[in-house]
């Protein structure tokens, strides 16, 4: 039946709509940190629908909120007052750290980043954008144009002029050999030099931890150092928190807080986990920036009563159960376990990450050359062992991405690590 569904998929959907695995998987249902396929096989889920099932599959608090709201009204649009939307916006504005914050809801991270770019370029009256090398910001015409990862940017055509800055990848590139302090200083000098060769820039958009890029991150404090330069030029800072928000990194609720010495970003985008699988994205910005548009705008589906109810229930559960703390504790244990495993494999270049956002970079043994074939093989072997993981990376998709629901237990972390250990052994 799965093979037949795959044939039907290929007959009606685009060739570029990627599927994992040589024999693609149909997931039929889930509970907690586990999912089941159409053949009845159970898997421990270490990827959560690309970091979107943030708390747990079939979380009763969220499913109840969705069902109750759907029983009242499913849709109205932003042309009418919407109590769940106002309530969720109030909570997110307070949590954002941005003073006098305003919130606009969208249906995805792509749309959230697209909106942030619209706001920044309108506010600054400039179409020039700074982005990080190895970055990813979505699949719209605007966001693929600023994405700094060739594997996810199918066209160079764009309404924006994009200039790429060093700093998103700590352990590769021309500054990799430097100490953290020297690395930050070199990246700031690069930014200063770049701004000396261009006209007014609207904004820098940056993921505190690059998601599709393989969970790479700069040293803490880089974007604070950038902020000093940006502020002198009046350039806005957009923190793309689509994958890093809501406490997943463990040490911070938002990724930008690792770089917060100079204050919060001007704009913050979010999506993924806030809806625990429901389609929610959004932008938070200080009022002056959010209100700069001089034309009417609405969102047909952004802020839907059903998705807002899900977001409220999910956010409440996350805060009341200290899932940020759980990400820090269990994520730290999992990272150390994976580093011990990696030390025994010549294919692993690096295990990196924060909280429950962990990357394992694979290379040709004895070199720094990316090894996408090894990453694909480990992905398959992990599935055979009953574990679902992701992959990514700016160097030919050679990074295993591990991002379980944030309710992960210590026992489940150990179970998943054991499967990864066995999967890595299949490479030898």
Can you give me a brief rundown of this structure?
The protein contains 13 helices and 15 strands.
Rg from alpha-carbon coordinates: 21 Å
Count of alpha and pi helical runs = 13
| Overall morphology | globular
Instruction: Pick out the low-confidence regions.
Output: none
Order of H and E elements: HEEEHHHEHEHEHEHEEEHHHEEHEEEH
The average pLDDT score comes to: 96
Query: Can you list the strand order of the major beta sheet?
Result: 4-10-9-8-7-5-6
Descriptive notes:
The protein is an alpha/beta fold and 428 residues long. Helices cover 38% and strands 16% of the residues. It has 13 helices and 15 strands. It has helices at 2-12, 48-51, 60-72, 83-96, 109-124, 141-146, 180-195, 222-233, 287-290, 305-320, 323-342, 372-384, 410-425; strands at 27-31, 34-37, 42-45, 101-106, 128-132, 161-165, 203-206, 236-240, 267-270, 281-286, 348-354, 357-362, 387-388, 390-392, 399-402. The strands form 3 sheets. The chain has a 7-stranded mixed β-sheet, with helices on both faces. Helix 6 links the parallel strand 5 and strand 6.
Features:
alpha/beta, 15 strands, 428 residues, globular, seven-stranded mixed sheet, single chain
Helix and strand topology:
Layout: H1 2-12, E1 27-31, E2 34-37, E3 42-45, H2 48-51, H3 60-72, H4 83-96, E4 101-106, H5 109-124, E5 128-132, H6 141-146, E6 161-165, H7 180-195, E7 203-206, H8 222-233, E8 236-240, E9 267-270, E10 281-286, H9 287-290, H10 305-320, H11 323-342, E11 348-354, E12 357-362, H12 372-384, E13 387-388, E14 390-392, E15 399-402, H13 410-425
Parallel strand pairs: 3-13, 5-6, 5-7, 7-8, 8-9
Antiparallel strand pairs: 1-2, 2-3, 4-10, 9-10, 11-12, 12-15, 14-15
């Amino acid at each position: 039946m799965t093979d037949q569904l795959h044939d039907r998929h290929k007959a009606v959907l685009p060739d570029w709509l990627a599927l994992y695995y040589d024999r693609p998987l149909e997931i039929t249902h889930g509970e907690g940190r586990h999912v089941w396929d159409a053949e009845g096989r159970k898997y421990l889920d270490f990827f959560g629908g690309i970091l979107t099932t943030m708390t747990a599959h079939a979380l009763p608090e969220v499913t109840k909120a969705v069902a109750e709201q759907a029983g009242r009204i499913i849709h109205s649009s932003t042309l009418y007052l919407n109590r769940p939307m106002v309530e969720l916006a109030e909570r997110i504005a307070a949590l954002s750290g941005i003073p006098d914050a305003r919130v606009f809801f969208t249906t995805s991270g792509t749309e959230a980043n697209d909106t942030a770019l619209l706001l920044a370029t309108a506010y600054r009256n400039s179409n020039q954008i700074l982005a990080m090398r190895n970055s990813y910001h979505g699949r719209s015409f605007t966001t693929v144009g600023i994405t700094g990862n060739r594997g996810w940017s199918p066209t160079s055509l764009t309404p924006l002029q994009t200039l790429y800055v060093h700093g998103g990848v700590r352990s590769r590139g021309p500054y990799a050999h430097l100490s953290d302090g020297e690395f930050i200083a070199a990246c700031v000098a690069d930014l200063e030099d770049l701004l000396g060769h261009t006209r007014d820039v609207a904004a820098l958009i940056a993921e505190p931890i690059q998601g599709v890029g393989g969970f790479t991150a700069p040293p803490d404090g880089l974007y604070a150092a950038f902020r000093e330069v940006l502020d002198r030029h009046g350039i806005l800072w957009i923190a793309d928190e689509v994958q890093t928000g809501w406490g997943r990194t463990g040490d911070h609720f938002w990724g930008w807080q690792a770089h917060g010495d100079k204050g919060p970003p001007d704009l913050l985008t979010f999506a993924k986990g806030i809806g625990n699988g429901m389609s929610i994205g959004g932008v938070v910005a200080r009022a002056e920036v959010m209100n700069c548009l001089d034309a009417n705008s609405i969102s047909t589906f952004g802020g839907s009563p059903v998705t807002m109810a899900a977001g409220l229930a999910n956010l409440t559960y996350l805060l009341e159960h200290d899932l940020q703390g759980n990400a820090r504790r269990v994520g730290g244990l999992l990272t150390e376990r994976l580093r011990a495993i990696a030390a025994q494999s010549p294919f692993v270049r690096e295990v990196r990450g924060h909280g429950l956002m962990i990357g394992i970079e694979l290379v040709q043994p004895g070199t720094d050359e990316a090894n996408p074939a090894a990453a694909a093989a480990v992905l398959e072997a992990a599935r055979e062992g009953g574990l679902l993981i992701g992959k990514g990376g700016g160097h030919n998709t050679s990074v295993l991405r591990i991002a379980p629901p944030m309710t992960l237990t210590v026992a489940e972390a150990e179970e998943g690590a054991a499967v990864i250990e066995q999967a890595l052994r299949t490479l030898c």
